[in-house]
Amino acid sequence: MEPLSSGSRNERKFNMKTLAIGGGVVLTVILVGVIAFQFIENRRLRNPNFHSDQLRAEAQALANRVGRLMQLPDEEVTVATVQDASRLHGQEFFRDANNGDKVLIFTEARRAVIFRESTNMIINSGPIVINSTSAGLTE
After folding, report:
1. 75: confidence class by pLDDT, cuts 50, 70, 90
2. Which of the ends of the chain has fewer CB neighbours closer than 10 A, N or C?
3. Which long-range contacts (CB under 8 A, 24 or more apart) does 109-114 make?
4. Helix, coil or strand: residue 71
5. pLDDT at residue 135 greater than cutoff 70
6. What is the DSSP letter of 73?
7. What's the mean pLDDT in 93-114?
């Protein structure tokens, strides 16, 4: 084998230096991209309209799913989630409700539907009296 000449060492140093600089540039571009994405996402999530629009869309998607199982009133739906079914079992409407069940509330029609997503089943539906202090439910 021939010993390396100083020219090939310089070439190797140059290639390693170029590689290191190129890698640094690529990492910098990736880092700037991640920071920019997080900044934009953070601004979007802090927008109060984002959450209400997202909740409205999720409620409508759930209503569409339940609407394939039964006819629903033609109005905007409010969805609550059963958090503590034991606090609701004293009310006849909620006797078969479990934690995690969704309650679709149609205010104008004064109707509600309890839906269990895990089994894709309607647990109960019927007329309701709306009061704002229903214990055990969260929107």
Report:
1. very high
2. N
3. 109/73, 109/75, 111/73, 113/66, 113/70, 113/72, 114/82
4. coil
5. no
6. -
7. 93
Q: Which amino acid is at 55?
A: L
d(CA 104, CA 80) in angstroms, rounded, equals 7
> What are the extents of the domains in the chain?
1-46, 54-138
For residues 113 and 125, the answer to whether their CB atoms sit within 8 Å is yes
Q: How many angstroms separate the CA atoms of 72 and 104, rounded?
A: 10
- Look up the pTM and report it: 0.59
Supply 87's token pair: 């606090």
In the chain, the amino acid numbered 81 is: T
H-run or E-run covering 69: none
Cβ partners under 8 Å of residue 75, min gap 6: 106, 107, 108, 109
**Which residue in the block uniquely carries the two structure tokens 């509600």?**
112
